Amino acid sequence: MTDTTSTVEQQLEITLRVNGVARTATAPARRLLSDFLRHDLRLTGTHVGCEHGVCGACTVLVDGQPMRSCLMFAVTAQDHEITTVEGLAPDAEQMSPVQQAFTECHGLQCGFCTPGFLTTITAYLQENPDPTEAEARECISGNLCRCTGYQNIVKSVLRAAEITHEREAGA
Ligand code: FES
Ligand code: FES
């Protein structure tokens, strides 16, 4: 016999802190964080490529740590601090060090993968503010760029570290 009582999906009220602001929306329990950000909160800077945790395009920061938002349910991010690419810049007038480095070093090509690189590198430089070139390559090894623009992205990691130090020194 078919059970018809379970066909209606339960809707949950989900509240996250996104880029410093509490945001609430109603979504099914199985809504992925990537879809919740893009469709329910209209933060479309986070891109979705593979939806399998492989490409890194959907990477956001959860309490400062890089996470594949396509592998997380939105409900599991309840009450956590999420940073998307829209929240990386310190203010409307200034890019973040990683964003500035991408513009200086031509790290951005078609831009589809770029939000995931920006969030990944931002978190990495917090842990390792002085990467070697080999470490810069390691840092981005989990992100795929279909334009194969890795050379300039590696340069961007190294330049972002420099910019961060310059800003700290008040240059
Ligand atoms: S869309 Fe999440 S890793 Fe590719
Ligand atoms: S810049 Fe196009 S996929 Fe990376």
From TrEMBL:
Protein keywords: 2Fe-2S, Iron, Iron-sulfur, Metal-binding, Oxidoreductase
2Fe-2S ferredoxin-type domain segment(s): 12-88
Protein's pathway: Alkaloid degradation; nicotine degradation
Transmembrane segments: none
Keyword ATP-binding recorded: no
GO molecular function: 2 iron, 2 sulfur cluster binding; metal ion binding; oxidoreductase activity
InterPro entries, per database record: 2Fe-2S-bd, 2Fe-2S-bd_dom_sf, 2Fe-2S_ferredoxin-like_sf, 2Fe-2S_ferredoxin-type, 2Fe2S_fd_BS, Beta-grasp_dom_sf, Diverse_Oxidoreductases
Protein origin, superkingdom: Bacteria
Statement: the UniProt record of this protein carries the keyword Metal-binding: yes
Coiled coil: none
Pfam families in alphabetical order: Fer2, Fer2_2
Protein name: Carbon-monoxide dehydrogenase small subunit
Organism: Oryzihumus leptocrescens
